[in-house]
Amino acid sequence: MKPRFTIILTLLFMVSCKEAIKSNAIVFTTSDLNYANTVLLEAVMEDAFSPPVASRIYAYSHLAHYTTLQSLRQDSLINITNKVNGLEKFNMSIEDNVNPELSALLAFSNIGKKLIYSEQFFEQLADTLRIRATQLGLSEAVIKNSQAYADKVSNELAIWVDKDMYIETRTYPRFTSTKKPENWRETPPDYLPGLEPHWDKIRPIVIDSANVFDYKPLPEYSTDKDSEFYKMVDEVYQESKNTTEEKQKIAWFWDCNPIMTVHKGHMVTTIHKFTPPGHWLNIVNQITRKEDANYFKTSKAYTLTSMAMFDAIIAAWHVKYKTDLVRPVTFIQENVDVEWTPVLQTPPFPEYTSGHSATSASAAEILTFIFGDNYEFTDNTQLRFGLEERTFKSFRAAANQVNLSRFYGGIHYMQGVEEGARQGRGIANLILKKLL
Predict the structure, then answer these.
(1) Among 210-214, 215-219, 267-271, 323-327, which stretch is predicted with the lowest mean pLDDT?
(2) Which of 379, 350, 392, 397 is nearest to 180 (CA)?
(3) Gap between the Cα atoms of 278 and 319, Å rounded
(4) Rounded to whole angstroms, how far apart are CA atoms 313 and 210?
(5) Among 173, 221, 179, which Cα is nearest to 196's?
(6) In a 3-state reduction of DSSP, which class is residue 184?
(7) d(CA 316, CA 151)
(8) Rounded-to-integer distance, Cα 253 and Cα 276, Å
């Protein structure tokens, strides 16, 4: 047994060590931010939010983190808040005795909790962060002040969030298909109504409006085999007849269907997966671990990528419901082959432009800006769903594969994916120009 005075000296030393850690010391690491992002992805997947709604949750949570961190680490991050629509005059008074990273992570947790149903994910995250702060040597006063500052920022941001028209669009009429042959109609196997037909009413984060993309006109609808429209559809059909195992693997790797249904007789089973923007945020997680990126670079990667994807989806949805284009499965079953089915389940909204292509291209442009071109990486996102990992020579190469995946999967025309990609690239570059 140790002498009593030795135990007392040890305890005093432990207390003095904790007190010696300054409130603004960088004690949290990129691993902590990656863990918070993982909690976010899991919560969104648990609640099975659609890609547009998921992109909103991702962007606002990471923006809350970045905004809080930047206000306290002004020498390490540039201020982007004054370039965000509706936040131009956002300015928080700096508090003393606050740990910037802890406060930012707690703000992230606050906004995440506000936007989902399964609040326990973020309650547990906040508890974990406070326990970790104690283990890292932050005092009880610093932890309390960091929480108070996070709450202050979150409350201000929550007011801004609630003004983005999301709440109002929940009350708007559901989309009813026209039943015209050239327009989108409910698709098998679930024949669901059009998803988020009013999403272009949502306030973008950076771009001026949903209508910033000058898309290529579509060929005139026709069932004539010599027409450009028929050739556009037949290209999808012929591709399905000449598919390969590798092409199907590509299609499934980028499926990213948040609610895939499996029909067996009268039984319907649902499988939850990451959304397209969730897949890309998981790529950021993997890249920053591989890079051993510092906390600030990681925060920038998450925030700018999620913001770009959010705005790209708003713009894509604007074009989707403006063009209201029939999906390949509908045209082919009615005019070419009644028994034809695509590799992937067709999502319930109009075809043009491809939302996944726009999302992926916008993410790829941001990540190329941050980590560089010709950046080779391996993506293991789909291992948990029984699919192999895939290696890419660059972020843009991965985004290009997304385009092919939607075409190989039989759910998009080639023009739809090409224009979606062009849309995403353009929006990402507009965002970079405005913010940086």
Answers:
(1) 267-271
(2) 350
(3) 22
(4) 9
(5) 173
(6) coil
(7) 34
(8) 11
269: helix, strand or coil: strand
How far apart CA 62 and CA 157 sit, in angstroms, is 12
pLDDT per position as a tens digit, 47-91: 999 999 999 999 999 999 999 999 999 999 999 999 999 998 887
Q: What is the CA radius of gyration of the chain?
A: 24
48-to-258, 272, 348 alpha-carbon distances in Å = 6, 6, 15
Q: Model pTM greater than 0.70?
A: yes
Task: HSE, CB side, 13 Å, CA atoms: give it for residue 367.
Answer: 32
Residue with tokens 């709440």: 167
Residue 25: Cβ-neighbour burial (10 angstroms; 0-12, 13-18, 19+): middle
- Estimate the share of the chain in helix, then strand, then coil, as percent rounded to the nearest 5: 60, 5, 35
Q: How far apart are CA 375 and CA 321, in angstroms?
A: 35
CA separation for the pair 251, 258 (Å, rounded): 15
Q: What percent of the chain has pLDDT over 70?
A: 93
- Contact call for residues 275 and 54 (beta carbons, < 8 A): yes
Contact criterion met (CB below 8 Å) for 364 and 287: no
Conformational region of residue 349, where left means phi above 0, alpha means psi within -120 to 50, and beta covers everything else:
beta
Please check the confidence at residue 343 and state whether its pLDDT lies above 80: yes
Quote the CA–CA distance of 343 and 325 in Å, as a whole number: 20
Find out whether 31 and 286 touch, Cβ atoms under 8 Å: no
CA distance 146 to 83: 25
pLDDT in tens, 205-234: 999 999 999 999 999 999 999 999 999 999
Residue 432 carries which side chain, given as an amino acid letter? L
